[in-house]
Design brief:
alpha+beta, elongated
């Protein structure tokens, strides 16, 4: 959560929770299941998506995240940056002209997703 919140601060105000924080499944090794937390926030786009992608990428690199920029094809491409490592397993900032999304998934640790999900409901 701290990682995603810090990333949204780089781009500005107006963010709302899009998903989570919630428990997700992941794999920690040969057939061994694990758990991780997933968190996403959304907001309307700004006038300068390119500058926002650059700001988020710079912030993530400062945190030790390995980044990769991307963009879709077409006349009005969607810009973004993906991240791996540092304080998270994976992250993504999608600067879509229809709205922004930032998400992060925590590091994967050994755990029983089904058991933890049930315990969380009690």
């Amino acid at each position: 959560m701290t990682f995603v919140e810090g990333s949204t601060d780089v781009v500005g105000d107006g963010w709302e929770i899009g998903e989570g924080p919630g428990l997700g499944k992941c794999g920690v090794g040969l057939g061994q299941g694990g758990v991780q937390y997933v968190y996403a926030k959304v907001r309307s786009a700004s006038a300068d998506p390119k500058a926002d992608v650059e700001a988020v990428e710079r912030h993530w690199k400062e945190l030790g995240v390995t980044t990769e920029r991307y963009q879709t094809g077409g006349e009005d491409p969607i810009l973004g940056v993906r991240g791996r490592g540092g304080p998270v397993e994976s992250s993504d900032f999608r600067a879509d002209p229809r709205g922004y999304t930032i998400d992060g998934s925590s590091l994967c640790v050994p755990g029983d997703f089904d058991k933890m999900s049930l315990e969380g409901q009690e």
